TrEMBL record:
This is Phosphotransferase family enzyme. It comes from the Bacteria. Residues 90-281 form the Aminoglycoside phosphotransferase domain. GO terms for molecular function: transferase activity. Pfam families: APH. The keyword Transferase applies. InterPro entries: Aminoglycoside_PTrfase, Kinase-like_dom_sf. SUPFAM superfamilies: Protein kinase-like (PK-like). Keywords: Transferase.
């Protein structure tokens, strides 16, 4: 995973010119000093000195603390911390991430994740202290060289970590409550035909077919590979010689190609090439069953579109638009693949 300019095995990533500005989900983060004193003391204890600089990182879907830290003794770290307010589920997600990141940390620099240094809890707060990775998120709009590096990392994750070295549940179990968008749309239509009148007429006419296909996605996505299940630009860090994947709360095991299918709509929405151009040439897609891919893609599209028409989560005002934009791309890709 170097920074050379050789063509990646999946072919060049051609970026379309004159695309609209890419959507980026924004949030309202808490600052380092808003963490409970007990948690801040624990972090400073782990780094061996008081924190003299804390730089908030604004990307991501959480309203909690996310800050790069520098201690008085020169040691550095990255802390992410959440409370049950305003989103009661987020402490549980941080605990899940801690378990998975801890297991991946045992792989050292050979692993795909940053090193987890410690985990702290106080009242309803959970804080994870990581090594501070000297890297940056990929630029959006996506640049060809950075996209090639990330796509190579997806290949590495899918092949080198199959079977998964981490004890994780099947992706169908991990995301099963979310990937029911078409079935929820069908139920909403049955209750009130106007409830989903925002759907394209062709998709509305196929709503029952889409809901039936979606119901089979857990089988279609099954496999033994470690999947991140939440890959997008703000969950990736590029260093001089590594591609580091962060935020492992949703990790699971599944088909090698699952992460690629799920992330390509976001890549295109943020200025990258059309999904088919990347997927059809990518190594992990070569042995994928086309109908299984269509089934999982349908489930992804349903999730994005349904979430894109729900009220925003507290502190995440742009999230519905972010989801809807991905859903539009995923649905267009599905229509292209199915010849509808």
């Amino acid at each position: 995973m170097g920074m050379d300019s050789e063509r990646a095995p999946h072919g060049p990533a051609v970026i379309t010119a004159e695309r609209p500005a890419p959507l980026i989900a924004t949030n309202v983060r808490k600052a380092w000093l808003e963490m409970p004193t007990a948690l801040r003391n624990s972090v400073e204890g782990a780094l061996g000195a008081p924190i003299v600089r804390a730089t908030t990182q604004s990307a991501g879907f959480s309203v909690g603390v996310a800050a790069r830290l520098v201690a008085e003794n020169g040691r550095t770290g990255f802390v992410k911390a959440v409370s049950a307010e305003p989103n009661a589920d987020t402490p549980g997600l941080h605990r899940a991430e801690a378990r998975i990141s801890g297991a991946l940390s045992a792989l050292g620099s050979d692993g795909p994740a940053p090193l987890l240094l410690d985990v702290f809890e106080s009242a309803d707060w959970v804080a994870l202290l990581y090594e501070d990775v000297d890297g940056k998120m990929p630029d959006v709009p996506w640049q060809p060289d950075e996209l090639d590096r990330v796509l190579d990392a997806v290949t590495d994750l899918a092949t080198r970590f199959d079977p998964s070295p981490v004890d994780v549940v099947p992706v169908g179990e991990r995301l099963g409550d979310f990937y029911q968008g078409w079935r929820r749309m069908a139920a909403a239509r049955d209750a009130d035909p106007a409830a989903v009148d925002w759907l394209a007429p062709w998709a509305l006419a196929r709503l029952d077919e889409l809901a039936a296909r979606e119901a089979d996605w857990t089988r279609a996505a099954s496999g033994s590979a470690l999947v991140h299940a939440d890959l997008r630009a703000d969950n990736i860090l590029l260093t001089a010689d590594r591609v580091v994947l962060v935020d492992w709360a949703w990790a699971a095991r599944g088909a090698r190609w699952f992460d690629l299918v799920a992330m390509l709509p976001c890549i295109h929405m943020q200025g990258g090439p059309p999904p088919a151009q990347v997927f059809d040439r990518h190594p992990v897609a070569q042995d994928a069953d086309p109908e299984d891919v269509n089934t999982v893609l349908a489930a992804c599209a349903g999730f994005f579109l349904w979430q894109g028409h729900q009220p925003p989560w507290p502190g995440l005002p742009t999230l519905p638009a972010f989801y809807k934009a991905q859903g539009d791309v995923a649905l267009a890709w599905l229509r292209e693949r199915c010849g509808w």
